[in-house]
Amino acid sequence: xxxxxxxxxxxxxxxxxxxxxxxxxxxxxxxxxxxxxxxxxxxxxxxxxxxxxxxxxxxxxxxxxxxxxxxxxxxxxxxxxxxxxxxxxxxxxxxxxxxxxxxxxxxxxxxxxxxxxxxxxxxxxxxxxxxxxxxxxxxxxxxxxxxxxxxxxxxxxxxxxxxxxxxxxxxxxxxxxxxxxxxxxxxxxxxxxxxxxxxxxxxxxxxxxxxxxxxxxx
Length: 218
Known about the structure:
With 218 residues, this protein is α/β, with parallel strands linked by helices. It folds into two domains: 3-131, Response regulator (Rossmann fold, 3-Layer(aba) Sandwich); 140-212, Orthogonal Bundle (Arc Repressor Mutant, subunit A), CATH 1.10.10. The chain has ten helices and six strands. Strands 2-1-3-4-5-6 form a six-stranded parallel sheet, with helices on both faces. The longest helix is centred in the C-terminal third of the chain and has 15 residues, at 184-198. It is globular and about 50 Å long. The model has no long low-confidence stretch (mean pLDDT 86).
């Protein structure tokens, strides 16, 4: 089945281009487009797409607030949102991920990475542009909440600690499997256990916790 996507960007030429790139993928279908955040939220709530692709800077309601309304941490049934922007700024990434985004890409990332981000979000995974992953996730350790990071409900095993670090460094499941010489299903099981123990909803939050607890250096 195709991954159903909504694209929101206030620039028509950009919005149309993103939609064309995604529609060219054999297993991705763009089912709606919006020129502002408010319309994007309305469309998403009505159509319940598998993934929402939102620009950050949009009129009426920006991409951050649209993300918060559809994927925020207080929602019981959040949608998958990937944020895409021209601006490589720490504050944007930090705020977008805190709002619930499952991915963050720059508009010059290219068709392949864009498709990868959509697939990752649809699979409950997360992808951040490799060029900014470590630097921006490391910012969470410096600019995150003043309260100490939550402690895991159960101590992490040695293998889970290894998986935690690889996730924080932006490795995909396949790369982790190759690096640690374990099966893909084993990687997925460990990541599921990490989410349960850390109270994380996705691997972005796992990575954030790793940085906030100094498991990974900046």
